[in-house]
């Protein structure tokens, strides 16, 4: 990659926020302890992880071999050890933490339920016994299609308990998406609910499940149905089983099924922002170790924390930081079923106040949406218990970071901007809150035992102090995906093929600055090439969002005869969508603003204002679709998995 093609960070962000002294004084990891971990990992990468696995996990049969790389890049960890994930999350807390709350739950309508570790353990055992009664055993796949209620976590834990492999399909997905995933996984059982509550409406889960089953799903024998909403749903007595009829009568004892460390704990299909979803397969031992250690390092998780990760269990974030990591650490998790703005825009902050939330972990899309609703809402609530804030899912624009820092964090709380993927299983790059100063928009530095590098197009590692290129991981790590379900060829090609199996290629482009801090610039496909200069879409978006009139922006490239590509920006304003002369005026102002922030090169050739952006159900901007719109192509892509398919017309300038 020549110098001019090197992906440069063109947006200057000089603000640095030191760790707060109050936080450092009680942190699990301060700078010295973090340095010791890094040093240990650098000395002996495999030994480092082996020691942690012995210390943190409860093994029924201890492992003797840490890493088996004989079939690399299909790596295997702790292979001859045996354990059970549910025993690690529940049974081992029964002594000291039996009466401590494991789950605090609040529904959209305000209904609440709490479970202590002892109660959760008993419930999980009952569900596990019910699964056995339905003929499910070790290695069988179980698809879970449920609302964000405690029973979703119980279902996951129950599968883990008997060695069944769960695959969660997000409750917002359509019947077709559900059918595709059931068939790809070859699932024998579906666990669903009559419906869920969201935005004052009922999410028709059972109806969608019935549709999916009518379209195929031949491997499926039974459907276990939780009564959540109580509204009328079709019920096929030969196939469907009510949760309340089978679960309560089961014994609250169920011995865990000990499984090999490599036994698949779950499959999870990626969100599909970049194409056909992949069934990512995770292991038991390695995955759980990653989820646990990152809870301790990144979230500084301790016994008295109330940890609220707002992600749905349908996403990897909900697996690692709702269900597995925090419970394995013995913390209290908060689960909320509904929308953030019901009955009003203060709901999230009211929940945080009422439940004494100490750690709050959400996505940039939510932060930008909450920011757009104004500062008055969070100010009405007592958020004094909060001690740590987190972000995941997309690059967080410095502007949104500053809002989070000022308005929610009162300029006191550390923010952890965590970079990772469904495939990585757990957080890879993130500040350690008691040890690493933060910079708005940067996920800072890799965690101990995570070997990240930047490489150029030839696959050569860039060692400079100012490097831009592909983000790769050069050594295996325990929570890495093991394969793509039913498609190891695709696993090899997608993640390892590009540089002849030398590195795991994340698919993101990044820039590393002179302090060794990483700035994620977006997907490799999203990088623009304007007159020979490579620009990350993220930076132009952040420049736009730094203007007070702008709430959100998405930038894509459009082929241009002279420049190669030109910049096309979709902009959402904080107030009403401007039209006519007002829109023209604002577009000019924003072009000049980007020119000042980054340079003339990055000025959008076209700016289109809209009420919203096309988002995947996990809240990510669907740039693939915007690229087609910018090119003026007819939209042939499937928009049914969008959260707001109606917006496509407006974005295409037809409204
Ligand atoms: P698919 O792989 O099917 O396209 P997806 O990549 O959107 O779906 P996820 O695994 O949920 O599915 O998302 C991981 C991606 O999210 C990362 O590759 C990165 O692009 C982005 N991402 C996650 N966290 C951050 C972060 N803190 N900063 C920047 N980008 C992030
Ligand atoms: Mg991805």
From TrEMBL:
List of residues binding ATP: 393-395, 417-422, 508, 523, 534
Keywords, comma-separated and alphabetical: Acetylation, ATP-binding, Ligase, Magnesium, Metal-binding, Nucleotide-binding
PROSITE patterns given in the database record: AMP_BINDING
Modified-residue entries (N6-acetyllysine), positions: 620
Residue span(s) of domain Acetyl-coenzyme A synthetase N-terminal: 35-89
PTM summary: Acetylated. Deacetylation by the SIR2-homolog deacetylase activates the enzyme.
EC number: 6.2.1.1
Residues the entry annotates as binding Mg(2+): 545, 547, 550
Sequence positions that bind CoA: 198-201, 317, 531
Sequence ranges assigned to domain AMP-binding enzyme C-terminal in this UniProt record: 539-620
Catalyzed chemical reaction(s): acetate + ATP + CoA = acetyl-CoA + AMP + diphosphate
Cofactor(s) this protein cannot do without: Mg(2+)
GO molecular function, one term: metal ion binding
Function: Catalyzes the conversion of acetate into acetyl-CoA (AcCoA), an essential intermediate at the junction of anabolic and catabolic pathways. AcsA undergoes a two-step reaction. In the first half reaction, AcsA combines acetate with ATP to form acetyl-adenylate (AcAMP) intermediate. In the second half reaction, it can then transfer the acetyl group from AcAMP to the sulfhydryl group of CoA, forming the product AcCoA.
Similarity comment: Belongs to the ATP-dependent AMP-binding enzyme family.
HAMAP family in alphabetical order: Ac_CoA_synth (MF_01123)
Protein name: Acetyl-coenzyme A synthetase
Protein species of origin: Solimonas terrae
Lineage: Bacteria, Pseudomonadati, Pseudomonadota, Gammaproteobacteria, Nevskiales
């Amino acid at each position: 990659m020549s110098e001019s093609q090197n992906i440069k960070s063109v947006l200057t962000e000089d603000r640095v926020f030191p760790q707060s002294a109050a936080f450092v004084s009680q942190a699990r990891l301060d700078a010295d302890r973090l340095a010791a971990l890094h040093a240990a990992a650098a000395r002996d990468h495999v030994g480092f992880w082996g020691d942690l696995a012995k210390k943190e996990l409860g093994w029924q049969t201890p492992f003797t071999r840490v890493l088996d790389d004989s079939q690399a890049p299909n790596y295997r960890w702790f292979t001859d050890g045996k354990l059970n994930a549910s025993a690690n999350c529940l049974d081992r807390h029964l002594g000291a933490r039996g009466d401590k709350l494991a789950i605090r739950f609040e529904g959209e309508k305000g209904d609440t339920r709490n479970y202590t570790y002892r109660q959760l353990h008993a419930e999980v055992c009952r569900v596990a016994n019910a699964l056995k009664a339905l003929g499910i055993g070790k290695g069988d796949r179980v698809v879970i299609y449920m609302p964000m209620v405690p029973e979703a976590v119980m279902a996951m834990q129950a599968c883990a308990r008997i060695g069944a492999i769960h695959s969660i399909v997000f409750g917002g997905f359509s019947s077709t998406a559900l059918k595709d995933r059931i068939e790809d996984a070859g699932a024998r059982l579906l666990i669903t609910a009559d419906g869920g509550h969201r935005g004052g409406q009922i999410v028709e889960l059972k109806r969608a499940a019935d549709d999916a089953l009518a379209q195929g799903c031949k491997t499926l024998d039974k459907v276990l149905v939780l009564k959540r909403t109580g509204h009328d749903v079709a019920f096929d007595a030969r196939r469907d089983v009510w949760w309340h009829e089978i679960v309560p009568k089961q014994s609250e004892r169920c011995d865990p099924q000990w499984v090999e460390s490599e036994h698949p704990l779950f499959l999870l299909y990626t969100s599909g922002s970049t194409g056909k979803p992949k069934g990512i397969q995770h292991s038991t031992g390695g995955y759980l170790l990653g989820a646990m250690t990152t809870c301790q390092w990144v979230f500084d998780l301790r016994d008295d924390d109330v940890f609220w990760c707002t992600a749905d269990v349908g996403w990897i974030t909900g697996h690692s930081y709702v269900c597995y990591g925090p419970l394995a650490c013995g913390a209290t998790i908060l689960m909320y079923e509904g929308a953030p703005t019901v009955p009003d825009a203060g709901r999230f902050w009211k929940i945080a106040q009422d439940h004494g939330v100490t750690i709050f972990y959400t996505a940039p899309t939510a932060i930008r949406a909450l920011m757009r609703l104004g500062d008055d809402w969070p100010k009405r609530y007592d958020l004094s218990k909060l001690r740590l804030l987190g972000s995941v899912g997309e690059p967080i624009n410095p502007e949104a970071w500053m809002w989070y820092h000022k308005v929610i964090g009162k300029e006191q709380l550390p923010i952890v901007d965590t970079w990772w993927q469904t495939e990585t299983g757990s957080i890879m790059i993130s500040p350690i809150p008691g040890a690493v100063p933060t910079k708005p928009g940067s996920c800072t530095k890799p965690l101990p035992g995570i070997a990240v590098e930047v490489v150029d197009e030839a696959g050569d590692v860039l060692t400079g102090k100012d490097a831009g290129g592909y983000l790769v991981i050069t050594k295996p790590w325990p929570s890495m995906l093991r394969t793509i379900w039913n498609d190891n060829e695709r696993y090899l090609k997608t993640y390892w093929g590009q540089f002849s199996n030398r590195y795991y290629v994340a698919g993101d482009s990044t820039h590393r600055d002179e302090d060794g801090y990483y700035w994620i610039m977006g997907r490799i496909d999203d990088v623009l090439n304007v007159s020979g200069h490579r620009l990350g879409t993220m930076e132009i978006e952040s420049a736009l969002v730094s203007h007070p009139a702008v709430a959100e922006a998405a930038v894509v490239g459009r082929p241009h005869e002279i420049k190669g590509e030109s910049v096309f920006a979709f902009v959402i304003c904080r107030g009403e969508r401007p039209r006519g002369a007002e829109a023209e005026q604002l577009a000019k102002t924003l072009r000049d603003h980007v020119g000042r922030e980054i340079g003339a090169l990055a000025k959008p050739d076209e700016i289109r204002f809209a009420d919203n952006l096309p988002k995947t159900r996990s809240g990510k901007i669907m740039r693939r679709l915007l690229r087609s719109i910018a090119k003026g192509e007819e939209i042939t892509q499937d928009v049914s998995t969008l959260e707001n398919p109606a917006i496509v017309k407006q974005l295409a300038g037809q409204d």
